[in-house]
Amino acid sequence: MKTRSNDNSSSIAMNDKIAQAFSAFILSAQAKIATAIAGRFNAYSARKQKLVLLSIMAITIAILLAGLFTNSYTIPAIHQSYKPATHIGMASDVNFSGRKDAQLKDSLTKK
Fold it and tell me: Residue range 40-49: average pLDDT?
């Protein structure tokens, strides 16, 4: 039985209209920003344009090189006391010490 909450067939056209309006907004904003940047950049002399591009390239290269030599994420080490997770149906007192006389209990029963 289809209910109104899980019937998406009627909202496909509306979703397409929303996506189209949103993409048109994004494209117009990008065009405005690009026009503003191009107008400001083209106002510079040729020498100053080269200087701006070289400084942008130098900053980009410095950031990329700094990223190579810094550790932003380290993988945690597994310590010697690591024990695997106990799963349902597995004995709750697993003998990790090596002794054979350990009492194994089922986690669902109390015997």
Answer: 94
